[in-house]
Specification:
This protein is an alpha/beta fold. It has 2 domains: about 5-125 and about 300-320, 3-Layer(aba) Sandwich (Rossmann fold); about 125-295 and about 325-345, 2-Layer Sandwich (Dihydrodipicolinate Reductase, domain 2), CATH 3.30.360. It contains 11 helices and 15 strands. The strands form 2 sheets. Strands 14-13-12-11-7-10-9-8-15 form a 9-stranded mixed beta sheet. It has a 6-stranded parallel beta sheet with strand order 3-2-1-4-5-6, sandwiched between helices. The protein is globular and about 60 Å long.
Length: about 350
């Protein structure tokens, strides 16, 4: 066994090229061993960039003894079969968000990991971000008092080419355009990250969701605008507004917020806070930046902490259940929009 854990990537497309492969290269505890894609030119490209081997065969990658863990970044509907196959082959898995497109698929992935005794994690970033970990501690210590509400806002204007080529055009495909293969539009594509982040920071669990959504300007099956109201177990209320075809986007670049009965947090860069009462050394009555440290510039910390969990034989910072819980909220919102009535989360 090499000092650095050998990672295989299944899917050498956009997110692998832009984020995860560089993160593996930057990590202290992992190396890219094998790049796989059904399109050989993509696998060859990633392999050449990082000194790895390449293949077009999932079976070949999973049969490679140097591959101890795999990162899976493929169309969403393929997350379950490939994750289950990798876990059954004895590999640990880091799967791209969303964990799956259905709760049944997520449950199957989680159950397989437990049966195989392998680590399953989802590529959410909040739990791997030391700044968010520190902010979570401050919130739990009473920084803004009792949580009363949350707000998620995403206002984008994706080019028509996004739906068949992503942001970079690296891979031409139509899976993003269909609900069956993508799971949905802007909610599950983009703001599922935010749903995970706010759940992590606040510790609050949604119990009821009401949503309306539609497609106004995009020639695809999935939504390009959605509005969601969330009721949390503690009585707090969350709102989510997300659009992927909003002309001009939003020059103000709105940020997620957390409201409390003693203050408010804006998740910008830097994170800022307004307090009604002083907290530790922070005065009240003015907006203040929080000193939470420096943001990581790549996914190196995510990869390192994923590998450490494997080496220490413990649960990862982001579990399969974390992925399932974020997915459950998104799917409840879609169901609510179909029914035009609130949906309870079990």
């Amino acid at each position: 066994m090499s000092e650095k854990m050998g990672i295989g990537v299944i899917g050498s497309g956009e997110i692998t090229m832009k984020a995860t492969a560089p993160g593996i290269a930057a990590s202290q505890h992992a190396r890219l061993a094998v790049a796989m894609d059904t399109r050989p030119e993509l696998a060859q490209d990633i392999a050449a960039r990082y000194g790895a081997r390449w293949t077009v065969s999932v079976d070949a990658l999973l049969g490679d003894p140097e591959v101890e863990a795999v990162y899976i970044a493929v169309p969403h509907y393929l997350h379950r079969p490939l994750t289950v196959q990798a876990l059954a082959a004895g590999k640990h898995v880091l799967v791209e968000k969303p964990i799956a497109t259905t709760l049944a698929d997520a449950d199957a992935m989680i159950a397989t990991a437990e049966q195989a005794g392998r680590v399953l994690s989802v590529a959410f970033e909040a739990q791997y971000d030391d700044r968010m970990v520190r902010l979570r501690e401050l919130i739990a210590a009473g920084l803004i008092g009792r949580i009363t509400g949350t707000r998620i806002v995403y206002r984008g204007d994706k080019a028509a080419s996004y739906w068949t080529g992503g942001y970079t055009g690296r891979v031409q495909t139509d899976w993003r355009t269909r609900r069956e293969t993508s799971g949905g539009g802007v909610l599950i594509m983009n703001t599922i990250h935010d749903l995970n982040t706010l759940r992590f920071l606040t510790g609050l669990e949604p119990v009821r969701v009401y949503a309306e959504y539609d497609n106004y300007a995009t020639p695809v099956e999935v939504e390009d605008y959605i509005a969601v109201t969330i009721r949390y177990a503690n009585g707090a209320i969350g709102t989510l507004e997300a659009g992927s075809a909003l002309p001009g986007r939003d020059p103000a670049q709105p940020k997620d917020r957390i409201y409390g009965d003693r203050g408010q947090i804006v998740l910008g860069d830097p994170v800022t806070v307004y307090l009604r009462e002083p907290f530790e050394a922070l005065p009240a009555g003015e907006w203040l930046p929080l000193d939470l440290g420096t943001a990581a510039l790549d996914r190196g910390p995510m990869i390192d902490k994923f590998v450490q969990a494997i080496r220490e034989e413990r649960q990862p910072l982001v579990t399969g259940l974390d992925g399932r819980n974020a997915l459950a909220v998104a799917l409840a919102a879609y169901r609510s929009g179909e029914l035009h009535q609130p949906v309870e989360l079990g």
